[in-house]
Structures are given as C-alpha cells and as structure tokens.
# Entry
Amino acid sequence: MINPQQQQQQSRRGFIKAASVLAVAAAAGTAGVARGAAATQESNDAAAAPGEGPPYKVSLNAYSFSKLLNDFNKQRGGGISLMALLEWCAKNGFDGIDPTGYFFPTYPDVPPDDFVNNLKRKAFSLGLGISGTGVRNNFTTAEKSERDASVKHIKQWVEVAARLGAPVLRVFADTQMKSATWQQVAPGLSRDDVQKYIVDALSECTEQGKKYGVIIGVQNHGDFLQTAEQQLALVNAVKSEWCGPIVDTGYYKTPDPYKEIEQVAPHAVNWQIKEKPFGQETDTPTDLIKLMKIVRASGYRGYLPIETLSKNKGADGYDPFAVVPPFLKKLREAIQQTA
# Structure
C-alpha cells in the first residue's frame, strides 16, 4: 500500500515528466531538437524507474574530448568543435554538457558575446542543459602576482559562466604546474600559510560569483587537496554558500576513496564521475552502484557530469567516441538500479 509521502513523490515525478514532455513538444521544430528531446526523455524514463529517488541528469565534461577539441582550435587537422560536440551529446542521450573554458577558441581570453550566445542557444535547441564550466588557475604558488592574475581570470570567466547559464565555475586549489608539488611552488611555507592565501583568493572570486549568481566549485585535483578533510577544511574556511566542493571521484589519494567521496558528497556543488577511483593509470574500475548509493544518500540533486581520460595523454589509442557511450550507459544503469 502506498503511503501519502510515496504518493506525493510519485505525483511530483509524474508532474516533472509531463512538464518535460510538454516543453520538448513546444520547442520542437528542427531535427536536432527532436533527437535531443527523444534522447533526454528516454534517459529520464530509464533513470526514473519505479522506486525512490530523483531521475538524475547526466552531462559530459568536455575534457573527455580534450585532444580533439584542442586539435580543432589549434588547426592541427581533424578534431571537433564545441558546437559539434553539443550535437554529439544530444545524439548520444546526454542531458547536459560542461563546456570547459579552455576549449573555447579564444581561451584564456573570454569569448565574444556572439560565440557564447550561439553556444547557449544551440544547447537549448538540442535539449541540453549547461551543467557548469571551468578554468585553469594556480592558487598554491607563493608568487602573489600569479595568484592575483588567476583571481582576475576567474572573475572574468564568472561573467562568461553567468552568460552561459552555467550554475558552477570549476577552479583549482591544487598546483597546476607540471611535475611540481605545492611545497615546491611555495618553498618554506607551511600548509596553513598556503591555505590562508588560497582562502583569500577564493573569497575574492566568491564575491564575484555571488554578484553574478555563479557558484565557485573547488575541485580536488592535485597534491594540496588529497583527502575529504583537506577539501572541506579549505572550502569551509571561505565561509560562503557561493563556494563549495566539486567531487572528483578519481583524485582522492587514500586507500579508500569511497570514504572520502561519502564525506564530501553532502556538500557537493558538482561532480566529476571518473572511470577509475584510484587514477586513470590504474586498472580498478569505479563501482558505480556503490557510488550512486553515496550520491543518493547525500541528498545531492544536481547534474552528474562524467569525464573519461586517456592513460597516457592519447598515446594509448584513447578514443572518446568509443569510450564515452559505454561509460554513460553504465552510469545510467547504476542510476536506475539504485532508484
């Protein structure tokens, strides 16, 4: 027998599904829209199988196509444009996309309004949401001028994110200098010293995010944030609801990354679902059922972006066209099985 709470949940799901179908029907007018709407509705039907829990939306982090996007932008022959990647996402049943900033043709400079507006409109016409975007920055360095430049860069891209309708701008708190540790880029300083000036930088960025309605998402990717405790300590020190952690499932450097994920998940403002929890160079695949149980228990209701990676920066024959769809299918199945 269905209790009143279950009935209310089912009624709400029914309303959301009906509203989604009507919105798609109203927007239909091109073949691209029809394909995107059909793929989105099929995905939501699969995710919202009988049972409890939200029908999570899955997006693609554009970094999965890093080499191909860079090849196109740098005119090295072949590759794929961001606009073409939008069409591919719609055809393959994604609900959204994270068009990472450094794949815009003008990066690190902000893109012209026309490019942003055209990308936003194309995503809408294909039935794709924009789950977030991200930039490169270096906040661990002791060089204040470099940190200041990163703050300025993030502030500029907060405005881009707002124009895109991206709710989250992804930034780093870890060292982004190749083969360097935070101790090497901040020689003689303690962890507390470094964290203090990272917090100062993030706080300034967060004020800009608050102004434009964009959350600053702090990703664990490097050597400064290796554990949940470290990530949460940093984010909490910013003391703003406009700053939160992004859970990168492949970069917690502990024997049990699921324990770290579970600790950060209730505070997450976005995710990066990776194929492997111990790093792409390892062989152990992510237990997506276990991961989705953590996501559901945390109360998170936003997008779940996936990101696939090459082991050796393309030298291993990595082909995102072949790798991404099966991983999307596995995540969809895990979403359904944990509903």
Observations:
- The first helix runs from residue 4 to 27.
- Residues 1-51 have pLDDT under 50 and may be disordered.
